[in-house]
Amino acid sequence: MAEIDISQLEAFKDSLSKRADWNDFVEANARELAARFLRKVIKRTPVGDGTFEYEPGNKELQRLTNGGTLRRGWTVKTEEEAAGGRAPSAIAHAATLKISKRGRNYAVTLVNPCHYASYVEYGHRQTPGRFVPAIGKRLKKSWVRGQFMMTKSAKELNKEAPKVIQRRLDAYLREVLNGK
User: Fold this and answer.
1) What does the DSSP 8-state code read for residue 131?
2) Do residues 172 and 25 lie in contact, with contact meaning Cβ atoms separated by under 8 Å?
3) 175 and 20 in contact (C-beta within 8 Å)?
4) SS3 state of residue 18
5) What angle do CA 30, 31, 35 make, to 5 degrees?
C-alpha cells in the first residue's frame, strides 16, 4: 500500500488560513484607490482668490479670507474645517474613511462639504449684468461651465484601478503562497 505525505499541503492550508484575511486585503485596496482619487481630485480642484469685501467709493477690495476652501474640503468633515485653513493629507484622510460592504461590492463615500462644490463641479447659471460686491464686478455670462474635477478624476482612476489592484493582488498572493 502506498503512503502519501500531505504535510506540505497541510502547511500550505495553515499558511492560507493565517494570512488570507480577504476583507482586510480588499479594504486596503479600497483605501489606496480612495487616496489616489483624493490626490487626483484635489490637484484638479480650482483655488479661488478668497473672500473680499467691497466698500462703495473704495476702489480696492478688502481681503477677508484666502482661497482654497473647496480644495481643503475634500479631506475634512465640515465646511468650517475647510475654511479654517488646515486639512489632513489625502492618505491620512483615506485611512479614516469608512468602507461599507454591500453584497459583493465594497464602497467608499467621499464628500466635499462645501455648499458650492456641486456648482463648481457641474456648472451653474447666473444673471448677466448683476453686480457682485465680493468681486467688485458685474457678471458677463449667463452660464459658468463646470470644472468636472471629480468626474475627470473618477474616469482616470477607473482606467488605472485594474492595474493597481492586479499589482497588489500579485504581491498578496506571493506573500501568502511563499509563507512570508
Assistant:
1) E
2) yes
3) no
4) helix
5) 120
Q: Which residues pair with 102 in a beta bridge?
A: 105
Q: Dump pLDDT digits (tens) for 36-92.
A: 999 999 999 998 776 666 677 777 766 666 678 899 899 988 888 888 878 888 889
Q: Are 97 and 31 in contact (CB under 8 A)?
A: yes
Residue 28 banded pLDDT, cuts 50, 70, 90: very high
* Average of per-residue pLDDT values in the chain: 86
Please name which of 119, 139, 29, 30 lies closest in space to residue 73, comparing C-alpha atoms: 119
**Backbone phi, psi, residue 34, to 5°:** -65, -40
- Could you tell me which of 76, 72, 95 has the C-alpha nearest to residue 85? 72
Prediction pTM value: 0.78
